[in-house]
Protein backbone atom coordinates (compact mmCIF):
# COMPACT_ATOMS: atom_id res chain seq x y z
CA UNK A 1 0.00 0.00 0.00
CA UNK A 2 1.39 3.42 -0.93
CA UNK A 3 2.46 5.70 1.88
CA UNK A 4 0.44 8.58 0.48
CA UNK A 5 -3.24 7.67 0.46
CA UNK A 6 -3.80 9.85 -2.62
CA UNK A 7 -0.77 8.52 -4.49
CA UNK A 8 -2.78 6.32 -6.84
CA UNK A 9 -5.25 9.11 -7.56
CA UNK A 10 -2.49 11.66 -8.20
CA UNK A 11 -0.04 9.40 -10.05
CA UNK A 12 -1.52 7.25 -12.81
CA UNK A 13 1.91 5.61 -13.22
CA UNK A 14 2.32 4.60 -9.59
CA UNK A 15 2.53 0.90 -10.43
CA UNK A 16 5.25 1.50 -13.04
CA UNK A 17 7.12 3.75 -10.64
CA UNK A 18 7.03 1.15 -7.87
CA UNK A 19 8.20 -1.59 -10.25
CA UNK A 20 11.15 0.61 -11.28
CA UNK A 21 12.12 1.16 -7.65
CA UNK A 22 11.72 -2.52 -6.88
CA UNK A 23 13.98 -3.43 -9.81
CA UNK A 24 16.62 -0.97 -8.65
CA UNK A 25 16.54 -2.37 -5.13
CA UNK A 26 16.71 -5.94 -6.40
CA UNK A 27 19.64 -5.19 -8.73
CA UNK A 28 21.74 -3.09 -6.35
CA UNK A 29 20.79 0.12 -8.20
CA UNK A 30 22.27 -1.06 -11.51
CA UNK A 31 20.29 1.14 -13.90
CA UNK A 32 21.18 -0.94 -16.97
CA UNK A 33 19.30 -3.93 -15.57
CA UNK A 34 16.15 -1.85 -15.13
CA UNK A 35 16.00 -0.02 -18.47
CA UNK A 36 12.81 -1.84 -19.51
CA UNK A 37 11.08 -0.66 -16.33
CA UNK A 38 12.27 2.91 -16.91
CA UNK A 39 11.04 2.84 -20.51
CA UNK A 40 7.65 1.54 -19.38
CA UNK A 41 7.40 4.26 -16.73
CA UNK A 42 8.39 6.96 -19.23
CA UNK A 43 5.82 5.67 -21.75
CA UNK A 44 3.18 5.77 -19.04
CA UNK A 45 4.03 9.34 -18.02
CA UNK A 46 4.08 10.42 -21.67
CA UNK A 47 0.65 8.87 -22.28
CA UNK A 48 -1.02 10.46 -19.26
CA UNK A 49 0.61 13.83 -19.91
CA UNK A 50 -0.86 13.71 -23.41
CA UNK A 51 -4.29 12.83 -21.98
CA UNK A 52 -4.06 15.73 -19.51
CA UNK A 53 -2.98 18.12 -22.25
CA UNK A 54 -5.88 17.07 -24.50
CA UNK A 55 -8.40 17.40 -21.67
CA UNK A 56 -7.01 20.82 -20.73
CA UNK A 57 -7.29 21.97 -24.38
CA UNK A 58 -10.94 20.83 -24.43
CA UNK A 59 -11.66 22.55 -21.12
CA UNK A 60 -12.47 19.17 -19.59
CA UNK A 61 -11.83 19.02 -15.85
CA UNK A 62 -10.29 17.40 -14.02
CA UNK A 63 -7.33 17.29 -16.38
CA UNK A 64 -6.17 13.98 -14.95
CA UNK A 65 -9.11 11.59 -15.27
CA UNK A 66 -10.49 10.00 -12.10
CA UNK A 67 -9.34 6.47 -11.28
CA UNK A 68 -12.59 4.90 -12.43
CA UNK A 69 -12.21 6.36 -15.96
CA UNK A 70 -8.57 5.47 -16.57
CA UNK A 71 -8.98 1.85 -17.67
CA UNK A 72 -11.55 2.86 -20.30
CA UNK A 73 -9.25 5.62 -21.59
CA UNK A 74 -6.32 3.19 -21.88
CA UNK A 75 -8.53 0.59 -23.60
CA UNK A 76 -9.77 3.19 -26.10
CA UNK A 77 -6.19 4.19 -26.87
CA UNK A 78 -5.12 0.55 -27.34
CA UNK A 79 -8.00 -0.04 -29.81
CA UNK A 80 -6.60 2.61 -32.12
CA UNK A 81 -2.98 1.58 -31.74
CA UNK A 82 -1.49 -0.60 -34.51
CA UNK A 83 -0.73 -4.17 -33.44
CA UNK A 84 2.94 -5.02 -32.91
CA UNK A 85 4.23 -8.32 -34.23
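^ C-alpha coordinates above, recovered residues below v
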Amino acid sequence: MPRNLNAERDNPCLKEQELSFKCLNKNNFDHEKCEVYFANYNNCKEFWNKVKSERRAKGQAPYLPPLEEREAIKAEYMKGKPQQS
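Helices lie at 7-10, 14-26, 35-58, 67-80.
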